């Protein structure tokens, strides 16, 4: 899958792949840190702070290899779909981040993104040592 790039201005993206502008919408940018059966959706997330208009989220603390989740949902108030959520979620792994851009590789879901971020191929591209699992 081809990488996607978001323009960063003053520490926040000026566009995001998922956003619900409606008053009933909820939007977020989170780092999926690991699987956690006690957490909602089975993932431990660290949410990034919101930025003021016209920006979206602050990207401070994000780094190469982080699994990110852009999410947007809206509660429908139509009588035929009373209070149904209409979610849109985009997952990816950060490949490059600096003051001007955030480049990430889109992934189909959070578990695939977590696996990709830990894969030997991705770790070699990042020039980082491979994490070893220690079983005690």
Q: What order do the helices and strands come in, and which of them pair?
A:
Elements: E1 4-9, E2 12-13, E3 25-35, E4 43-47, E5 67-76, E6 84-85, E7 88-97, E8 101-107, H1 110-118, H2 120-126
Antiparallel strand pairs: 1-2, 1-8, 3-4, 3-5, 5-6, 5-7, 7-8
Round the mean pLDDT to the nearest integer and report it: 85
Structural class: mainly beta
Beta strand % = 35-45%
Number of domains: 1
Span between termini: 37 Å
The biggest sheet amounts to: 8 strands, antiparallel
Helical proportion, percent range = 10-25%
Order of helices and strands: EEEEEEEEHH
The Rg value, from CA coordinates, equals 16 Å
Beta-strand segment tally: 8
Uncertain ranges: 128-136
Number of helices: 2
Query: What shape does the CA trace take?
Result: globular
Outline of this structure?
The chain is mostly beta strands.
Structural description of this entry:
Helices cover 12% and strands 39% of the residues. It starts with a strand and ends in a 10-residue tail after the last helix. The chain has one domain (4-126). It is globular. The protein is mostly beta strands and 136 residues long. Strands 1, 2, 3, 4, 5, 6, 7 and 8 form an eight-stranded antiparallel β-sheet that branches. It has helices at 110-118, 120-126; strands at residues 4-9, 12-13, 25-35, 43-47, 67-76, 84-85, 88-97, 101-107. The longest helix has 9 residues, at 110-118. It is built from two helices and eight strands.
């Amino acid at each position: 899958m081809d990488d996607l790039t978001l323009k960063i201005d003053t520490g926040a993206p000026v566009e995001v792949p998922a956003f619900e502008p409606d008053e009933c919408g909820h939007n977020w940018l989170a780092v999926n840190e690991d699987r956690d059966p006690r957490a909602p959706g089975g993932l431990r997330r660290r949410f990034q702070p919101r930025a003021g208009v016209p920006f979206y989220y602050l990207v401070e603390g994000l780094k190469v290899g982080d699994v990110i989740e852009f999410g947007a949902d809206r509660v429908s108030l139509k009588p035929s779909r009373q209070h149904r959520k209409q979610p849109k979620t985009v997952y990816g792994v950060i490949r490059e981040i600096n003051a001007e851009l955030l480049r990430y590789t889109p992934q189909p879901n959070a578990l695939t993104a977590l696996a990709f971020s830990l894969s030997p191929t991705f770790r070699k591209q990042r020039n980082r040592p491979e994490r070893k699992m220690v079983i005690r």
